[in-house]
Amino acid sequence: MAEIRYVRGDATVPSVKGVKIIAHVCNDIGGWGKGFVLALSRRWPEPEAAYRAWHRDRAANDFGLGAVQLVQAERYVWVANMIGQRGVRTGSKGVPVRYEAIDTALDRLAGHALDLGASVHMPRIGCGLAGGRWSRVEPLVRERLVSRGIPVTVYDHD
Q: H or E segment at 42?
């Protein structure tokens, strides 16, 4: 079975051929302005604009934990905005990460990746501002993506 490939570098610049999906975790309150999203916004305006519109119109769409929004950024590059954290602050209910939402989002992402024939590229999703642990996220990535034959590269930024 394929393995997750770990590399040092910037997940917004995947250096492989073919269609690529850059996956990351978003919060469920419409906030975009810290963490990995800043790198995305520096490269393309579309993912942020689409996320903000998705949140703004949430009464009429599927915005919520576990949802995935696929946004085309370039001809062969898509960004997957995945709702996998409740709010943005650690509080009485613990850290913002919601592993079950990441699991659902990764399952949905797999369908998109298979339809597009795409590889998936990501930072250690849910483990930055969301406060999650990679030891909990990695098995979800393996089960939902790698086990279905989808090439996955995880980027550790310098």
A: helix 36-43
